[in-house]
Amino acid sequence: MLFTELARALAQALDAWAATVGQATDTEKRPTRAGLIAELERDRKELERLGRTRKRIDEPLLAYWLKGRDQLRAGGKRNRLPGKEDSEAIARALTKREHHRAEQLPGISVEIADLARRLKDEGGTGWRDDVLASLIPEAIAGGDANPKSDTTSSAALPAPEESQQQRPRRGRPRRVRALGSALAVAVTATAVVSAVAVIGSEDDEGAESPSGFAAPRTPQPTFSNTPAQGGPAEAGASDSSGLEKGTLGEDSRCSAPFQGPHMITWRVCTRVEKDRVSFALKITNKGRVAADVKTRLEYARAAQLHPCPKAPNYQPLNIPAGRTVITDSRQCTVPREATPFAYQGVGRVVAKEANAGSYELSPAANVYPDRVIWRPDLV
Asked: pTM score > 0.85 for this model?
């Protein structure tokens, strides 16, 4: 459990570092990466003239760091992670151009170094190969932990009491990572949400996006005239765990709420029906102005990550002030298989201007032919 929590923190720190640099170099009127590298080389030579040294940062190494957590993919290159000295140099170069958020980079790098040290102590010399694998939502024992396409044979669902356990690695059993706060950064989006259901703040008993396999349509969203009182009330039954039941309809569960970006809170939801399993994001804007965010929804089945069939990319979305939006579950619906599987929604909701992100998970639906067992579930 400790390794998984450390791994999650490191993945988020690497994503944050990449997002901070990426935001300063990816758009017009900002320094290009080649320009940044040239500035870093001038800085390094000036340090040498003063009798100081700094490791060289070239364009391939910067591109590697800008992968965020993907630097840690098993079997990939083993370049060094961005250190404090590297980050101080990059921050100097970027703050010269008024990119003051770059001042955060050295602190992020200190955190990265500390987490890497602790992960090595916990996981041994091969810790880097285990980091991303430990974060894959693996509610089924024996599944392949790599987030590849669905090309491997399916694993059978274990007994219910085993449904939250991961396959032991290096002698240590690990649990699916705990739900927590999402990092408010995102990857550049290219597509538009085609349909959402917008629900009111207080009096609605729940909102259910129409399900089915018909082609997506674009209905006019409906808005409640009831203003939010300290933020919209959440639809669906909830308990002290923060989980929600019934938000997408019968036999559905949503995660506890995650905070950010800005005044946004959001949940990842899954619904199981007789012939299908669907996924959605429930996003609430508790602010007084509309919020523009980016979202991405995927799903995990048998420990494999898959894109949503009708919405595989990041999606920009406007959330009206004081309102809640539920993305159209028809955009992320798959047939229910005869073979027992465990399913989870895998979601991101991030700031409009950001360009990297971390995912959060819905409760796991352990789907048998004759029943569904949710882990965790409302008490």
From this structure: no
